[in-house]
Write a structure and sequence with these properties.
alpha/beta; 21% helix; single chain; GMP Synthetase, Chain A, domain 3; seven-stranded mixed beta sheet; four-stranded mixed beta sheet; 8 helices; Rossmann fold
Length: 379
């Protein structure tokens, strides 16, 4: 019986060895987020119906395990940014296709060396490990991101890595040949050796690099602006107790829930631009406002350390633009008037926030994605 093995291990050689051992035995692997409280981790493993769990002390059988399908390689929990995590099933063929396409686009050489330092329970971290294993590339796996350890790994020979924007700000990007950036949208002034990726757990990591689809990846923009993806890296389905239906239609197109379109850059190249999640769009007085655009403007204010933007109900305008601000100086936070004036310097005035809520921190996933649905509502 082919089993799903939950790997409750920190990033490092033991994790990689356990992954390879499971694959050699014909089993699939579910990485457990090491930051979860023990009861939450146990509940997640149970919901994925794993047959056993491997931790630092050994392997233990689990009740309620359900066999995997032939060819299944990984089950990865989605970030849960908009609800309960779902278990995305990726086959060996999908993992291999992702590794091949990524390596081809980046021109991975025999002397390259991947560094994995993002959480292995997320596809952005785990895909570094799997592509290195599939391509025979040298690999170093850290238990978590630490700027000192990442720098040391680069000095020891690591040339490629995957980071999120917040982690990128804590290192000298020049120490790597190339850095893949996922999670939240990167800043426009990012280093030249970085590649902004777009993808989902359901696509086995990023499938669009700097607006250009990887080889074998098809992109279609629906009439309503939703981005649809069809590719060999695609998930087989979801694995959880609820038997969640997949957002893949009869023609094999994954409905991402993201809106965007094609644009030409200065060289005339056609690139995909992602505006944001369909549910995040703010419609105020008939005008469309994308939160990430306003967040980008507010983030340049010197008194703003972190920012989120979302809709609040408004009896006159339907919705109003509201900003949640982490002040650089909590004792002397910026005024709403100052923030509105700052946004109006670069964006239409209807995009400027009408409300501001000051918070100590913003709710984010491990990869830096804002969890807009759990922002504290304004009074």
């Amino acid at each position: 019986m082919r089993r799903l093995i939950a790997l409750d291990l920190a990033g490092g050689p033991a994790f990689v060895d356990a992954l390879q051992r499971a694959w050699e035995d014909g089993d699939a692997v579910f990485p457990v987020d090491q930051r979860l409280p023990r009861p939450a981790a146990a509940a997640l493993v149970a919901s994925m119906r794993a047959s056993s769990i491997v931790d630092a002390d050994g392997e233990y059988a689990q009740n309620g395990g359900v066999p995997i399908e032939p060819g299944d390689a990984l089950v990865i929990a989605t970030s849960g940014a908009t609800g309960a995590p779902k278990g995305v099933v990726l086959t060996h063929d999908a993992v291999a296709a992702s590794a091949a396409a990524t390596s081809s686009r980046l021109g991975v050489r025999a002397d390259d060396h991947w560094l994995a330092c993002l959480p292995l329970a997320h596809v952005g971290g785990l895909s570094v490990v799997t592509r290195a294993l599939h391509r025979g590339t040298a690999l170093t796996v850290l238990p978590h991101f630490d700027a000192h350890d990442v720098t040391a790994a680069a000095k020891a020979g690591a040339t490629l890595t995957s980071l999120v924007a917040t982690a990128l700000q804590r290192i000298d990007a020049a120490i790597f040949r190339c850095i893949l950036l996922g999670g939240s949208r990167p800043t426009t002034d990012r280093p030249a050796n970085t590649v902004a990726t777009f993808g989902m757990t359901e696509t086995g990591s990023g499938v669009v690099y700097d607006g250009v689809p990887l080889d074998g990846v098809e992109i279609r923009v629906a009439p309503d602006g939703e981005i649809l993806i069809r590719c060999p890296m695609m998930m087989r389905g979801y694995r959880d107790a609820a038997n969640t239906a997949t957002p893949i239609d009869a023609d094999g197109w994954l409905h991402t829930g993201d809106l965007g379109g094609w644009h030409e850059d200065d060289s005339g190249a056609r690139r995909l631009h992602v505006d944001g999640r369909a549910g995040d769009l703010i419609i105020t007085g008939g005008e469309n406002v994308w939160p990430e655009v306003v967040e980008g403007a507010l983030a340049t204010h010197p008194a703003v350390a972190d920012v989120a933007v979302a809709a609040s109900p408004d009896p006159e305008w339907g919705q109003r633009v509201t900003a949640w601000i982490v002040a650089a100086d909590p004792v002397n936070p910026p005024t709403l008037a100052a923030l509105r004036a700052h946004v109006a310097e670069t964006l239409p005035s209807f995009m400027a926030p009408r409300d501001v809520v000051f918070v100590e921190r913003l709710p984010r996933t491990a990869l830096g994605k804002l969890q807009r649905t759990i922002l504290p509502r304004p009074d």
